[in-house]
Amino acid sequence: EKTAKVLIAIVVGLTLINSAVSVQFSYLSRDFWTALNQKNPEEFNFVLQKFTLALLAGVPVSVSYKYYRDKLALQWRGWLSQRVLDMFQTDRAYYLLETRKEVDNPDQRVAEDVRAFTQVSLAFSITLLKSVIDLASFSTILLSIYPQLFGAIIVYASFGTVCTVTIGKRLVNINFEQLQREADFRFSLMRMRENAESIAFYGGEGIEMTEIKKRLDRSLNNFWDLIKAQRNLEFFTVAYSYMVQIIPGAVISPLFFAGKIELGVVSQSYGAFNHIL
What we know:
This protein is mainly α. It has 10 helices and no strands.
């Protein structure tokens, strides 16, 4: 639809502008710390003025970027939900799904899966686009400062990606299983509510509650597996994030100690390094 195309164009445009704002702030940060290191009050005050102007321009861009991204996700969810609902009633598909049992918990598919699909897919696409733009923008900065710094981030990022995928690959299956078990638990509660009269008449609440608690236990056990898998992954990711505070300085420090670069350039290299990661 035309509205969707316009929203996509706005989101992509704001992503580009947002990345440009980040690059500009990295140069302002460089000048800020350089003026501070040189004890130059005139240059320091001038940088503060530029920073204020950049802030007035950058904040609306960042806020608008998130606003239009969420608006696009909401409209996409509405459109896709309407389409799935139309398919759900066409040719009595709802009845065939129930009798054939080919799809478990179709109500959850319509309500939860559509929401998760639209939000996650859009967030992943925008994050990928933003990462490519930031890689191109801030790699240029790192190369201009010190080519070895760019090589260090490529090696470090590759190492982090391989380790994260290897350690965290179990999370995909566990998360999928958790969605199914949560849906089964909700369905058993809904089934008891919808059949409350017959269950009460025949005194079947004990049997129903036993099944509900069994499904709850399955959900909790799987969630416990999820917690342990996340813990194992965080042992690496936390250490990985702390190392980012050391690596740029360790690589670029010889230039600083030799007097070839200012403190502001060191600060800018940290900012560029973190943006790419």
